[in-house]
Amino acid sequence: MTAREPDRAPDGRGAVRNLNPERERAILDAVLELLSEVGYDRMSIDQVARRARASKATIYRRWSGKAEMVAAAMHGLTVEHRPLPDTGTLRGDLAAGLPVFCRIYERKHAIVLGLLPAIRDDPELGRLLHGHMLRSGADEAAELLDRARARGEVGPEARVTTLVEVTKALLWHRLLLTGEPLDEDFVARTVDEVLLPLLQAGVTRPPG
């Protein structure tokens, strides 16, 4: 009998940490609730265990501590959505996918604001969240660009990291600095004035 590959924390480190998916979801939901209610500094493993009706032993079997658990909870906010549609065009894919991530980032907004002071004081938390931020959305962006390349809409120089980093920068700029809404106008202008020109730079289109 072949042993199952052990689950890992978002940064890939740690010992074997298999956990029932429903129990893991309950724990991570408790983390998000407590982050919103009391903040990172005042949140404890004991509180999470009580809220999720789990034992501390169960929590430590899956995560090494509070910072790793928070990074996992933030990661969960990003990956839990329906698959993005294949609309048949690059513009259509961008216009359909960007609102999904707008809603995700709106959910993360209040939590991220509460985490900023903790990130300054806890380098481990900052490192784990940075890793999560770099990875989130990359798989969806890669699939989108692969389809666009197959259709001849972008060239080989169009990069996943560029699409992900620019999009996230625009989202966080609005949420953290200007306070402007992530509405339909924002999506349309971002797609037509920023993302499409960026990704299609150098692509020769047939006349007409």
Automatic annotation (TrEMBL):
Keywords from the named record: DNA-binding, Transcription, Transcription regulation
Domain HTH tetR-type: 21-81
Coiled coil: none
Annotated InterPro entries: DNA-bd_HTH_TetR-type_CS (IPR023772), Homeodomain-like_sf (IPR009057), HTH-type_TetR-like_transc_reg (IPR050109), HTH_TetR (IPR001647), Tet_transcr_reg_TetR-rel_C_sf (IPR036271), TetR_C (IPR011075)
Pfam family, one: TetR_N
Gene3D superfamilies in the cross-refs: Homeodomain-like, Tetracycline Repressor, domain 2
DNA-binding region: 44-63
Source species, domain of life: Bacteria
Molecular functions (GO terms): DNA-binding transcription factor activity; transcription cis-regulatory region binding
SUPFAM superfamilies noted in UniProt: Homeodomain-like (SSF46689), Tetracyclin repressor-like, C-terminal domain (SSF48498)
Name of this chain's protein: TetR family transcriptional regulator
Species in which this protein is naturally found: Planomonospora sphaerica
Taxonomic lineage of the native organism: Bacteria, Bacillati, Actinomycetota, Actinomycetes, Streptosporangiales
